[in-house]
Amino acid sequence: MIRRLLSLVPPGTVAVGAGLALLGLASYVHLAVAGHSLTEADYSSLSVLWSIVFTLGIGLFMPVEQEVARIVAGRHSQGLPHGHVLARGADLAAGLLAAMVALIIAAREPLADRLFAGDGSMVAVLIGALAALAVAHTTRGVLSGLQLFPWYGTQLGVDGGLRIALVALLGLTGVTSPVWYGAVLVAAPLIGVAVTAPPVLRAVGGGVPVAWAPLLRGLGLLTVSSLLSQVVVNIGVINVRVLAPSDVATAGALLSALVLVRIPLFVFASLQASLLPGLATTATTGDHAGFHSLLRRALGVVSALGLTGAVLAVLLGPWLVQTLFDAPAVLGHGDFAWLAVATLAYLWAMVLGQALLALDRHRAQALAWAIGVAALVAATFAPVTTALRVELGYAIGSVVVAAVMAILLRTRTPRTTPVKAPPLEAVMPGVPGGT
């Protein structure tokens, strides 16, 4: 029975899913131990660091992983060497990282004062964590493109396992500095890369250098969509520190609450890898009924996930964040209701975005995320409490993205004749928030 079920999922799903599960668990353990070990002010600084790292890290470097995977897979299927793809991907990731590091260094004093209570060490940790994600995502692109999914899952699992072990060690030894809890986000991914280096190193070198054009063709729009999607889901914690720097309790409590309400997003990540290929297949063959049937089923699944998570979050959320993360009692059932609505709408946007990509409508997806971020910014200035402002921003931004995508999809759907096959660079946008 188990063998039959495994035959129904795409190759590598189990290996990658196991790694994702451990990495997701590590996020909860990481924040739970930190929440019980740090003061409210220090946990708030760690929360802001966490949000920035995964907003920029996933937003910038996940598209690099996807492009490297796409080109490596294509060359591998043709029997061509692919070492130069890794070199190009590394150059691209290094360029993006260098640009971000330059901006961070230029603004290090305002960043430290405004976001990290004057602690410049947290800015250094931020740079290190972004560098670690740049290396990790680039090498994962090679592993994915070569279909070395056990190695891919191993890198995720080592990263997650080390996070659990390292933060447990910090907690048991009584470490109370947010710098060390942030440094785990540097060490764990880099060690995961080192453990899974052999197949990546074997892929280095050989063949004719790869031109930049294939790597950059769809990267711009993918990066825009990826960054904006992470802004929608992660910016709330950062906004609390910007809007109310002295309100350290709310920033930490909000990150803990978001980790809980976004559990359905993590579950969806394990299903998402097979959604785009299915939608793309029906679109390219002109199977109008099949496309909409699969889209409706996917929306039904995420709606069930989101509603189940919403009920549990509203009922148990305030108690869970205090029990699991030692978060201050500043968020009530109403706050969790807004966050749950936002997460449900975000799930819809993720599914509808995959449908747009299946139709090769990258610009439409990027436009929807841009409009959603604009709506988020507008909602953030509502004359209400700080917590409600960021909750409304997340909720309204997500709803607007989903609504715009639905409207854009209705303007063009698969016809009876095949549409142009979409490029394979758009697969998974990454699990939001690093969970």
UniProtKB/TrEMBL annotation:
How this chain sits in the membrane, per its record, is:
Multi-pass membrane protein
The protein's matches in InterPro entries, at most eight in alphabetical order, are given as: Poly_Biosynth_Transport (IPR050833)
| Keyword Transmembrane appears in the UniProt entry | yes
The reply to whether Membrane figures as a keyword in the UniProt entry is yes
Taxonomically, the superkingdom here is Bacteria
The membrane-spanning stretches of this chain are: 47-64, 85-108, 120-139, 179-201, 221-242, 248-269, 298-321, 336-359, 366-386, 392-409
Predominantly, its location class is membrane
Q: What's in the keyword line of the UniProt record? A: Cell membrane, Membrane, Transmembrane, Transmembrane helix
Q: Where in the cell is it found?
A: Cell membrane
> What is the protein's given name?
Lipopolysaccharide biosynthesis protein
